[in-house]
Amino acid sequence: MPWGPFYEQRVYNRRRDIHAVFGGQQQGGICTPSQHPVIIVFTGSSGEQHGYADGWSPEGVFRYFGEGQVGDMVFERGNRAIRDHLVNGKDLLVFQTRGREGVRFLGQFECAGYSTESAPDREGNQRSAIVFELIPADASDKPAEADDQPIVEVELEVDLTGLRTRALEAARSTPQVAGAAARRSLYQRSAIVRRYVLARAAGVCESCNEPAPFITLQGEPYLEPHHTRRLSDGGPDDPRFVGAVCPDCHREIHHGQHGRAKNEALIETISRKEAVTGA
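Structure for HNH endonuclease, as requested:
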């Protein structure tokens, strides 16, 4: 799945193709550009000298160790940026360092949770290390096939305010979970946010103000969630910045000549609705 100029498994020059375009820190494993809605992380073999290494778990989760060379890892700077990237409306990109060859784009991921474990720091002392549970973005809108526990369906609520409260709580929390539980948690969070956004739209596109084009097999008006602050549309986000739009408006926002203006208008519409709902 491509993200902007990057295609999965292709190799890029970190300085020329990434920092020259997006800026951000040119050293270290976590890059947080200030002018772009993206967090860029680099994984490689350097952590192995400290007794740990990033990599895939059997559940299909990429375990990424946070930053901090001495003492316990804490949620500051890059670590906080990864944990909060969804609610901050920033895409999370992962590149694998390949030495002189460059960096290989592994894809867009989402932080589904985190865990802590004991690992040596740069000086050889044991400390608490943060391990982020990262899931490919295109897998966040469906349960993992390997999960052995059912997804808990989001019950329908009549009260829109109640749905909104649940959506805000879900979007703003990154739980301390790992493995299959992290995958389930991300899917459930996404479902809660989407349920509220679709209920807020009440069957009418929040962009063109026309009724949904058809009714689904579940008997609901068909509208698509659109993340107004992000380049992609995967995973949960702050529901105040997610719109429910018809397929035509969705495609026009992403690919149309006037897509940017249409997106800005949608942001204004959502803002007015949220001012009323959240009052």
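The chain has two domains: 11-137, 160-277.
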